[in-house]
Design brief:
It is a single chain. Helices cover 43% and strands 18% of the residues. It is an alpha/beta fold and 304 residues long. The longest helix has 24 residues. The radius of gyration is 21 Å and the shape is globular. Bound molecules: manganese (II) ion (MN). The site of manganese (II) ion (MN) has 6 residues, from loops.
C-alpha cells in the first residue's frame, strides 16, 4: 500500500517548528512549505494534501490548525481553530485523543512553545535566554529569503529526536546561538547607553542613531528588565525623511494597575491606535517632540 504524503504549510517561528514536530509524529509528512503572509494574502491556493498551521486559512488545504483570534472563519473546515497559547497546542489537542502517548514525549517542547508564543517570559528568559527560548531566537522569520529553509528542516528533525540541548549541540545551531548571544550583550550595552528615563517612563529616541545602533536598541523586552521600575517604553523611530513613528508599550512585567490609560485609544488623538497595552502613531518630524511630551505626561507616575 502506498501512502500519500502530506505537506505542511506554515510560517517560520518556534510555534511553526513545534507544530511540524508534532504533525510529523502522527501524519505521513513529506515536505514543509514555509509561506509568507503576503503570499497567502495574494491568494495562494493549497491542495487537499496540505496541512496549514499557525497561518490564516489557506484556500484548498485539507486540514487547518491555528490559534490567532484574528484568523477565525465562519465557513466549515477540517482541522481546528481555537484560542490557545500556540498553534502547536491546538495540533496537540486535536491528535491527543488518538495519539496521546506518542505526542506526550514532546510535552516540554510544547510547554516552552506555549510560553514563547504567548510571550509569558520570566526576566531571565529576556536577560539570559537558554534552551527553547534561545532556540526561538535562532529561527529566521523569512527562511526563503534568507536561505535558511534547510536549517528549519534540520531543527524540526533535531527537536523530534531530543531536547533543546540536542539541537543546540549541532554545529549549525551552536554557531547561531553564539552569534545571537554576543549580539544580545551588545544590545544590552547600547540600550543602557542610549535610554532616557523620566520616572516610570523610558524613552528610546532612535532619531540620531546609526543603523547598527538602531538594530541593537530595537530589542523588544530588554529595556524592561534593564531598567527597574519602568512601566512604559516610548520609541521614536524615523521611518522616512518626512515621517517618524512613535510606539508606546507597557512593560510585560509591570502590574496592570500601573497603566494610566488605554494606550491604543489614547494614541487616536495623534492619528494612531493599538491595543490596551501597546500602540503607535506616525507624524511629520517637527511634531515628534510635542507628541512624546504629551505621551509622557499622560503615562507618568511621579514617585514621591
Ligand atoms: Mn503561533
Amino acid at each position: 500500500m502506498s501512502k500519500i504524503l502530506k505537506r505542511i504549510v506554515t510560517n517560520s517561528d518556534l510555534d511553526a517548528i513545534t507544530s511540524c514536530v508534532l504533525l510529523r509524529a502522527v501524519e505521513p509528512i513529506g515536505d514543509v512549505k514555509f509561506i509568507d503572509l503576503d503570499e497567502i494574502r495574494k491568494g495562494w491556493k493549497g491542495e487537499e494534501t496540505d496541512i496549514a498551521v499557525n497561518i490564516p486559512y489557506v484556500e484548498g488545504c485539507g486540514l487547518w490548525f491555528d490559534h490567532h483570534d484574528s484568523n477565525v472563519i465562519t465557513r466549515p473546515f477540517a482541522g481546528r481553530h481555537e484560542s490557545a497559547p500556540s498553534a502547536a497546542r491546538v495540533v496537540y489537542r486535536f491528535y491527543a485523543p488518538a495519539y496521546g502517548p506518542i505526542l506526550d514525549r514532546y510535552d516540554e517542547l510544547l510547554r516552552e512553545t506555549d510560553k514563547v508564543d504567548s510571550a509569558a517570559f520570566a526576566r531571565d528568559d529576556i536577560l539570559d535566554p537558554r534552551r527553547y527560548v534561545l532556540i526561538s531566537h535562532l529561527i529566521s522569520s523569512q527562511p526563503v529569503m534568507d536561505g535558511t529553509v534547510e536549517d528549519n528542516l534540520l531543527l524540526i528533525r533535531l527537536l523530534s529526536e531530543g531536547p533543546a540541548e540536542h539541537a543546540l549541540a549541532h554545529p549549525t545551531f551552536a554557531r547561531k546561538a553564539e552569534a545571537f548571544l554576543a549580539n544580545l550583550e551588545m544590545s544590552k550595552a547600547a540600550i543602557l547607553q542610549r535610554m532616557m528615563r523620566e520616572g516610570n517612563i523610558l524613552i528610546m529616541d532612535q532619531r540620531d542613531l546609526t543603523e547598527q545602533e538602531r538594530d541593537l536598541c530595537n530589542n523588544k523586552f530588554l529595556p524592561y528588565v534593564l531598567f527597574d521600575g519602568a512601566d512604559v517604553l516610548v520609541r521614536v523611530k524615523p521611518l522616512e525623511a518626512n515621517r517618524t513613528i512613535v510606539t508606546v508599550g507597557f512593560n510585560i512585567f509591570s502590574p496592570d494597575q500601573r497603566l494610566r490609560t488605554h494606550i491604543g485609544n489614547f494614541l487616536k488623538q495623534f492619528g494612531g491606535g493599538g491595543h490596551p497595552k501597546a500602540g503607535g502613531c506616525s507624524m511629520p518630524p517637527p511634531a515628534v517632540d510635542e507628541t512624546v511630551r504629551k505621551i509622557v505626561d499622560a503615562l507618568l507616575i511621579r514617585t514621591p
